[in-house]
Amino acid sequence: SQQGEEDPQALSIQEGENATMNCSYKTSINNLQWYRQNSGRGLVHLILIRSNEREKHSGRLRVTLDTSKKSSSLLITASRAADTASYFCATDPMDTGRRALTFGSGTRLQVQP
Amino acid sequence: SQTIHQWPATLVQPVGSPLSLECTVEGTSNPNLYWYRQAAGRGLQLLFYSVGIGQISSEVPQNLSASRPQDRQFILSSKKLLLSDSGFYLCAWSGKGGTGGSNQPQHFGDGTRLSIL
What we know:
Chain A has no helices and 11 strands. Chain A has strands at 4-7, 10-14, 19-25, 29-37, 43-50, 55-58, 61-66, 71-76, 85-93, 102-103, 107-112. Chain A is globular, with a radius of gyration of 14 Å. Chain A starts with a strand and ends with a strand. In chain B, a hairpin with a 5-residue loop joins strand 4 (32-38) and strand 5. Chain B contains no helices and 11 strands. In chain B, the strands form 2 sheets. In chain B, strands 2, 4, 5, 6, 9, 10 and 11 form a 7-stranded mixed sheet that branches. Chain B is mainly beta.
């Protein structure tokens, strides 16, 4: 099963509103990353948060990490139509020896102008 | 700056035909390289990753294979395509950082949309 699962699967909001997406995972991690994907394109890295960090900001993006609950959230403030995309979390599980991330199934965000 | 090139952008192939998708990276050396497949509206399935020339780790048993003949070249192949091989194929690279690479951001190409008829 997927290590990271995003919630909700789809989200539709009005321009100017905030968008919150959640990610839950099953095993302990070294870090968690969020990516964005415009339709038909590759993924673009947004933020990496390490297991010893609780919150990170980048422009209008805010990511939190709660390792006790094995969950993370991505908040996009003052959303714009250009934020319409799918958003994925990806985890780096501990102690697997695997040099690769595990991606969730994504949240599709639609921002209405 | 680093760039990643993936081609072709779209490909239509008959069942049973061979496949070769190529990915090259510029502006970095000794990257980790990755091949993913994405079904429509779904997340990414890791197919293969490579930490160096000739070193390939396979994640999912299937009729696909990968090779890394040069440091910044990653090739995805099949001898005989199946209908189930249809999908969006993405190549990505990352630096190695201090722990081998999984603590580094991944940088993706624009993908190849493969349709099997």
